[in-house]
Design brief:
- 15% of the residues lie in helices and 35% in strands.
- By secondary structure, it is α+β, with helices and mostly antiparallel strands.
- It has an 8-stranded parallel beta sheet with strand order 7-6-5-4-3-2-1-8. Strands 9-10-11-16-13-14 form a 6-stranded antiparallel beta sheet, covered by helices on one side. Strands 26, 28, 31, 33, 36 and 38 form a 6-stranded antiparallel beta sheet that branches.
- The longest helix has 16 residues.
- Belongs to the glycosyl hydrolase 27 family.
- Keywords: Disulfide bond, Glycosidase, Hydrolase, Signal.
- Pfam families: Melibiase_2, Melibiase_C, NPCBM, NPCBM_assoc.
Length: 648
Amino acid sequence: MRKTTAVVAAAFLSMPFVPFVPLASAADAAQTPPMGWSSRTLGCSVSETSVRQAADALAPLAPLGYRYVIIDDCWLSAQRDGGALKPDATRFPGGIAALADYVHGKGLKLGLSLSAGTKACSGGGAGSYRNEAADAEQVKGWGADYVKYDWCSVPTADFPGQNVQQIAQTLYPRMRQALGDGVAFAMNNEDGSTVPWLWGKDAGATTWRTNVYNRPIPDAYANMVDIWETNQLRAEYAGRGSWADPDLIQAGRGGMTETEYRTQFTLWAVGAAPLILQADPAKAPPAIVANPKVIAIDQDPLGAHGTLVRTDGWYHVLAKPLQNGDRAIVLFNESDRAATISTSLGRSRYRVENLWTGAVASSEGELAAQVPAHAALLYRVSESREQAPPLVTFEADPPAFLGDDRPSVLEPGRSADLVTRVTNTGATGRLRDVEVTAAVPEGWQVSARTPATKARLDAGETFTVTWAVTPPAAAEPKNYELAFTQGGQSAVAVVTVARTPGPGRTYLSDAAWTSAKNYFGPVEKDTSNGERAAGDGRPLTIEGVTYAKGLGTHAPADIEYYTGGRCTTVEFQAGIDDEVGALGSADFEVWADGGRVAHSGVLTGAMPARTVTAPIEGARFVRLVATNGGDNATSDHADFADATITCS
């Protein structure tokens, strides 16, 4: 086994940053973004057995491009063996070489994590600092095809006068050069302090991390979107052979909906990102992770990173050029309500294929679709005279204005109007015998108030149907889905059933809110906020006065009620709960529809309760808001004591 001598180590330490020129086979390894599986979810419970099981489950996906089985930390022993890396004997008793042989026998490739510092990021294993050449030679000898190079326990004191980027530009190329021919190299600086997008390509990195928002990526929609937005800011630096890496694919872990997982996969594909699964490959949903046409967008040989055609913060259009001249187009609705998103394709005739549904249509230049909340639609667009039906935009309960992300509200036992719209967007031919049908939950009533059929729909024309929809009088307040169909297409309207408070004066803790957001723990009814599970609060107490009724929150908090234009006044005693002593501060506000109508001013834990009275006449929605008092969120136990609403 080859070991690095002191002379070689000293030479490495003095090396300046030199751009890496990939060898032919190393370049081949990076022609498309890496795909595979990472053991990150297993943490330090990873073992030889679990990695073999993952390889077994990943092997059927290999024809789609999933090749790398990556052991993410906790595989190394804390001590070297005669200066050499040593696998953890308990977790990997058979050694890494035998495991690599097993993985290779499945037609897959093995990945290992190493650290540029003195220790691994997890598990207490040895780092590769000053051992880069020997460690690279050793893992290659074992059969490693991929190295994820972490940034942990880096001895910055050894580099006086240098910032983190400069140190990284010394340490990362050392390992890259030592690995050399044919090993994929993933630069993994999770906090972004080394700004790898500025120099990763020149350093020979196969991938470089862009996720500086959370480390690692959480299995949650809002965090995933923030990470995607950060990744888009690095698009100009990515390209064939060196890919922007926004982190692992979450599908199958359970923290997001199927729609949200499909959105992540779509955004990663159009961004030419690595498609590395975090869930057990056996649990990753095939309908999402094994769609060959979507994977082809990610793996397109041109290697372009998709960019934003336009965005307004909620609604996004992205485009990615493909090697054969086609384009991938994404319509992404980040908001909480379905919305129609459109873009111009140019002056020609186009074949438009929805890669998630397989539907093919034609268009004379416009692409438009109603995109469900949190969804991303992916299309492959090509100039073509192919005979296909014209593209149809089918909308159910479209929002009244751009940016409206609240579902429509229906009251139990009351009829309300919803509309559907069918538009001949493609304009390549006439639609005939257009018919729209509706399906509602059991016990609901729905009927068309205007004709639901139309004999023909010419290019560019829209057909609108108004529907009378009535929830049953006993309908539970929550969200419901109403399904509409037309010509094989479906559109779903998500509506909220809500009740207004009854006539007279009602305690708000006895009324049903439509939404409630709170900093720590849930909003509590008739107790203070305990910061953890529901029901863990104490009696509401402000400056020694105890209140039997009210809402206990931790600022920032936001509680919304549906009032339907039938209420006049909200009143409460605002104050910081005594359980935090003199600490804590918050401003208590009342919002009626889009405007603030009253607030308390900043109150602290050393102040008595203050009466807040708010006029809300005519408002459809009312929100009680506790904002941060201007310092931090610590101890901000904000009580809306004796909170009442008066309605007709």
